[in-house]
Write a structure and sequence with these properties.
Blueprint (H helix, E strand, L loop, with lengths): L1 E2 L20 E2 L6 H10 L4 H16 L21 E2 L13 H10 L1 H6 L4 E6 L2 E7 L1 H6 L2 E4 H7 L1 H7 L10 H9 L4 E5 L4 E2 L3 E7 L9 E6 L4 E2 L6 E2 L3 E3 L4 E3 L8 E3 L5 E21 L6 E4 L3 E5 L20 H6 L3 E4 L8 E5 L13 H13 E6 L4 E9 L3 H15 L4 E5 L4 E7 L1 H10 L11 H4 L3 H15 E6 L4 E8 L2 H13 L5 E5 L2 E5 L2 E5 L2 E8 L7 E2 L3 E23 L4 E4 L2 E4 L5 E2 L8 E6 L4 E8 L6 E10 L4 E8 L4 E4 L2 E4 L5 E10 L4 E10 L5 E10 L4 E10 L6 E11 L5 E10 L4 E11 L2 H8 L5 H17 L4 H14 L6
Parallel strand pairs: 1-9, 4-9, 7-10, 8-11, 10-36, 35-37, 36-38, 37-39, 38-40, 38-41, 39-42, 40-43, 41-43, 42-44, 43-45, 44-46, 45-47, 46-48
Antiparallel strand pairs: 2-3, 4-5, 6-7, 12-32, 13-14, 15-16, 16-17, 16-32, 18-19, 18-20, 20-32, 21-22, 22-24, 23-24, 25-26, 26-30, 27-30, 28-29, 31-32, 33-34
Helix pairs in contact: 1-2, 2-8, 6-7, 10-11, 10-14, 14-15, 16-17
Length: about 850
Amino acid sequence: MQQQQGNLDFEYRYGFAMPQNYVFKAKRGLNQQIVKEISWMKKEPQWMTDFRLKSYDIFTKKIMPTWGPDLSRINFDDIYYYIKPIDKQASSWEDLPKEIKETYDRIGVPEAEKKFLAGVSAQYESEVIYESINRELNKLGVIFCDMDTALRKYPQIVREYFGTLIPPHDNKFAALNSAVWSGGSFVYVPKGVKVSLPLQAYFRINAENFGQFERTLIIGEEGSQVHYIEGCLPAGEKISIGQTWANIETVKPGDFVMTGNGYLSKVSKVMVRKYKGRMYKITPISPVNSFSLTKEHPILSIKRKDVLVKRKIRNNWLPEVDSKKLVNEVPVYRKVTELERGDFIIFPKPKKQFLKQTLLTDEEIEFLGFYTAEGSLHFHKKLRQYIVALTFSEKEEENIERVKELIFKITGKKAMVVKSKEKHAVTIVIYSLKLHDLCLRYVGKHAYKKKLNDEILNLSNTQLENFFWAYFKGDGNLFIKTSSGSHLYRASTASYELAIQLQEILAKIGIFASMQFRKGGEDIVLGRTILRKDQYIIAFTKPKQWTEVRETEDYYIVPIKKIEETDFDDFVFNLEVEGANSYLVKGFAVHNCTAPVYTTDSLHAAVVEIFVKKGARVRYTTVQNWSKNVYNLVTKRARAEKEAFMEWIDCNLGSQITMKYPSVYLYGEGAKGEVLSIAFAGKDQLQDAGAKMLHFAPNTSSRIVSKSISKSGGRTSYRGLVQVFPGAKNSSVYVSCDALILDKESRSDTYPSMKIKENDVTIQHEATVEKLGDEKLLYLMSRGIKKTDAEGLIVNGFIEPVVREIPLEYSIELNRLINLEMSGSVG
């Protein structure tokens, strides 16, 4: 994850160093004797010792890269290449030395073990000092351990693959890693096995002038996948599809559903199976949003016990939470059996799906709000006239006058007013085809069938507020609690779909509203008996300190009211969703059945080799935030066989210099490779990142999407290579590299290289460089947005195509890191 050395120009989140207590620390510098010493300390077989010595010899003969960033300041003789922090690896946190436990407590590793992790390995300096493996992995034949353990226990597998994809002679730093590597991760997934829980690795440097050289080796055998557990939902459960909810059994591949990032994404697969067992129903404080799922299905959540205040718990009350801790806590996916009443689940804020500007005027939007609440449409057969009518209580004089005014502004006609003394009601009537069609198009007719179209839902937040408060004036009421000063706002509708949409609109404008259902029947209104239809009541409280829900920039944190269990024996369903690997059940984020290996790593001079066999799929995610004096020099390569899919998601924010170009060698027919990359360079930083895609076989495809941001004199570079070899017919290549420069002192460069040796291919390449121009800022500021917020919107919009494909918990962390880096440029 991160390390801390030297003086930094900003507050480094994990910037702390613990006392340096070690079992063994090699001498400064590197020679053959130190290489032998490292191998002897680790009790390695002779072939590995020989491999190290051969690699060291290659390292001494290899010259430094003559391209890219200036690495001349690296002094290889001033580095400690091996430190052993403990005598033996621990399997329990209690067995670790106090200062190491404190280090990982600060970055959350002990808690992470409890948070739905199949395996955790923690590296401190050169050694993996802690490892905890879920028993379920062992039952599946999956191996997840550190590289040193793998070398001892599985020497044949390691020897077969180690250094074959990235040999020592590949480059000087690969040779250095091969000579002095220590720690890192080893993952082996047998044929056809699907890993059901995430794997994570944590890396930490504590000593000054220390080099860390992890070695990661991942092997996914034929048909295997490394992904989240397969949980499922019963038929009838509602999935958010943007403008409404749909039963999960009606969703088909190719349909779009809302993801945990608040965007629409395509469904790639639908799974159905027979299930007999316990079904769990989660009811948040919004009862209509309650949902059911099997015990294995992961839910994005926060445990109450992790965010408590230190005050004494009051009798029969849930323990009190610290609001600041709660909004800063990163939610993770947990099984429902790990949750309890009072824990929190995540309601992502819906994002704008379309940028098309509406043709609606402010008056039309406001009128549609009133119509949605109180309006109806008719056709007068005798007069052959289309009628729009809105009915109010006779006491709603202000609303009546406003609607008459709006009708005149929209149509140029004066409305008729019909009073009913018996019903204490006033009906406003206008004969207007234009207004009739406007209401029919955007809202529909009949109270229980009203539904807003997409254009309404994608209005700006200011326009949505205009629409909602007009609706509220018609169908809402306000209760003020004098003792606390809290205001309870309530509105009701007979339309189920409209209720869902109103909750979404409110979520967009910064309000989480609960929904309750009230069964229809006789009711008394203003002294008269009416037969009321079923009603959906939308309610929220202001000011926000009086609500139990907390809000962040990206989502609402909603407490669980109760969890119920029932027996179930029927078919259940699940979805595989492209990109973010999640979908929303009645607005709340759950994981889908295929998600990647999570390897949040930050490496100094590391080597990562991944073998993706026939039909297998691996995703490797990195969110890197090393301190600003680190040279982050990494070699990452994957080999994809027939119909295999390899994905790199690479986010680089820290380090002084980064040189990293994840690559995929597409050796098998139909293999796919993808690299999604974000680089952020601030003061005194150079992020030289990119990707390599090599097509050796026919019908292969590759996709590279690179986004870079530079500020305060920072420099970013995209350096990419795409090579299509003879015989790789019908290959498809897509490369997009975009750069955003935030000031005059910063710089961005692009160095693309394409070597195409086959005619029957499809190649797409696009590149843009743009500056944070005054025009965009002035445009946003003219809409009442502060300059700092406007800058933030531009930056977030720029990286959104990559962020939306990162799992939510990683996108949250990435956004926080970017906000930290942008301080001074974005508030």
